[in-house]
Design goal:
The chain is mostly helical and 567 residues long. The protein is built from 28 helices and 9 strands. The longest helix is centred in the middle third of the chain and has 33 residues, at 244-276.
């Protein structure tokens, strides 16, 4: 229910006061829609004085009223005759109803023109627009929501890769990605009480103050904290492990440093993405999520892709490099603005890059005069073969040409970024104390729940239907036993598990009858009741639909078993 400033909207009040079956089917027409629309516009329009009303009467009658949008998601699956009638009738009410039709076309726009004749399409003012691919919306969600300070909860590389792989290789559903992310968050908070510290930094002091002794002990057992304690002198270890008050003080300090690390990590991750995303073949990836997955997994500054990117940056022209530096400076300035300039490390990097930007901008495209030398002459002699000539040319090429002023500045800038900036800020989270509080890493548990296992589920449902139906008639002491109270498909499935690769349909039917409707003498039933034969045929058809069996070409009265365990 939508709310604004704590008050219900007019639509919400109307829905609450309106009985469920208020509108009859006979009232679903355009006059009723027009009357309802006029009533809604009258209720929402602000009251005016009579003089002001007369003065602005002409502008009010214009197109300032809210539009009435009708969305038809799949126009190709819609009846063309009904669609034509709808458009023709709506064209008669265009003066009283500002209607806008949104047609969802899955193939091409010509499909809409084929279903609408000219006398109908002439009533429309067509405008074609295309929605962005779903991967664009995923990148926006990751960039503007997940990798920001607004969301203190983060995923490790394996879990993040699992969610993105499900999106890219299965469904392309942004909603599904968000639901999976929410499930990871539920698992993160459900499995540990200490994860209460996974909160905005403003709420951190109160959260630490409310920690119980059990929660403090759980935080002490984290592996990252144990590694941090091992690096301390002996005299500082005992207070951390025994004194809760001292531990809370250190905990708050380390959690603030962790939040600052995450913010700086995201900032310089965007900077690295800006520098490398447009390079040939994009060694670090074209999207921010690809760079994030690699940087969280390991030290990205030591990766071969990182070194390859900076080799390619060494060939950038002055204009391209200036454009990238400007984008990096914009990212750093926006990050400093969010922190109100209280980050000396970011300010230092920003000042250094500004100096490089100013220096490169002042340099011309021409090389300095001291870098130019006359070409070297090669004395090839009178008698020289092709191999000797090649060796002399290689020897000449090994002699390094002196660098120009721009090339020296570019080399100095890239050395500063690759040697000082990114190794300092893009260290993996596992090196930071208490990273387990903000980063979820239990990928195996999540995978069991969000990645379906249809083979195991179907086998469980057919072999033990009581697991899902929760009825006493399907309850069995052993999973291998068969009872007449089971559903027909379960009985047929259990019987087919006892067969080999080829299943005789007559023997299968007799085994089914022996369970469902056994004869008094125990002999086979040659005259099968039509009802029993229909039940058996339907169960076999359902098994075939599920992919357990298929018809056999070798024997007409046999079927081939397709499932596991066939001999």
């Amino acid at each position: 229910m939508s709310r604004k400033d704590g008050n219900m909207s007019l639509e919400d009040e109307d829905l609450l006061d309106r009985p469920k079956n208020h509108i009859k089917k006979s009232d679903c027409n355009f006059p009723t829609l027009s009357a309802w629309y006029n009533e809604q516009v009258r209720l929402k329009s602000p009251s005016r004085s009579p003089r002001k009303k007369l003065k602005n009467s002409q502008s009010v009658e214009g197109n300032k009223n809210p539009l009435l949008v009708v969305v038809i998601p799949n126009v190709e699956g819609f009846s063309s005759q009904v669609l034509q009638n709808l458009i023709l009738i709506a064209s008669g009410y265009v003066k009283s109803l500002p209607l806008v039709f949104v047609f969802g076309v899955a193939t091409a726009v010509c499909a809409l023109h084929r279903s609408l004749p000219y006398h109908v399409s002439s009533k429309l003012c067509n405008e074609v627009f295309h929605s962005e691919p779903s991967i664009t919306y995923l990148n926006q969600v990751i960039d503007k929501v997940l990798l920001t300070s607004k969301c203190p909860f983060h995923l490790d590389d394996r879990t993040f890769k699992l969610l993105t792989d499900i999106f890219l290789f299965y469904d392309f559903s942004v909603h599904g990605f968000i639901q999976h992310f929410k499930y990871c968050m539920i698992e993160h908070f459900f499995n540990s009480n200490s994860k209460v510290l996974c909160c905005p930094i403003a709420d951190m002091p109160q959260s630490i103050k409310s920690l119980s002794e059990e929660q403090l002990e759980e935080l002490r057992q984290l592996s990252s904290f144990r590694q941090y304690v091992d690096t301390l002198p002996k005299k500082e270890k005992a207070p951390l492990l025994l004194d809760n008050s001292h531990f809370k003080v250190v905990l708050q300090k380390l959690m603030v440093e962790l939040h600052e690390y995450v913010e700086n990590f995201h900032t310089f991750l965007r900077c690295l993405h800006v520098l490398t995303s447009s390079l040939p073949k994009a060694p670090l990836g074209k999207h921010l999520r690809e760079v994030y997955s690699m940087a969280v997994a390991s030290n990205v500054s030591e990766a071969s892709q990182f070194k390859e990117c900076f080799q390619l940056l060494g060939f950038q022209s002055r204009e391209e490099l200036l454009d990238k530096i400007e984008k990096v400076l914009s990212i750093l300035q926006s990050a400093m603005k969010e922190k109100s300039g209280k980050c000396p490390s970011l300010k230092e990097v920003e000042q250094k890059l500004s100096e490089y930007h100013t220096k490169i901008a002042e340099l011309g495209m021409k090389t300095a005069e001291h870098a130019l030398k006359s070409p070297t002459k090669i004395d090839i002699g009178e008698n020289i073969n092709r191999h000797q000539l090649k060796e002399k040319l290689l020897e000449l090429s090994r002699k390094q040409r002196p660098l120009s002023a721009y090339e020296e500045t570019r080399k100095s800038l890239l050395d500063y970024l690759a040697g000082s900036v990114f190794p300092q800020f893009l260290v993996p989270p596992v090196t930071v104390p208490f990273h387990e509080v903000l980063f979820f890493s239990n990928m195996a548990r999540v995978k069991r729940h969000i990645v379906g296992t249809p083979r195991a589920v179907v086998h469980m449902a057919l072999n033990n239907p009581c697991y899902y139906l929760q009825c006493d008639c399907c309850r069995m002491d052993k999973s291998s036993s068969v009872s007449s109270t089971l559903p027909d498909i379960c009985i047929v499935y259990k019987l087919h598990l006892e067969c080999g690769r080829l299943i005789n349909m007559y023997d299968w039917l007799q085994a089914f009858l022996a369970i469902v409707s056994p004869s008094e003498s125990g002999e086979e039933q040659r005259e099968v009741p039509p009802q029993m034969q229909a039940r058996f045929t339907q169960a076999v058809a359902e098994l075939q639909f599920l992919g357990f069996i298929k018809t056999s070409r070798k024997k007409t009265d046999h079927v081939t078993r397709l499932t596991w365990g066939a001999s």
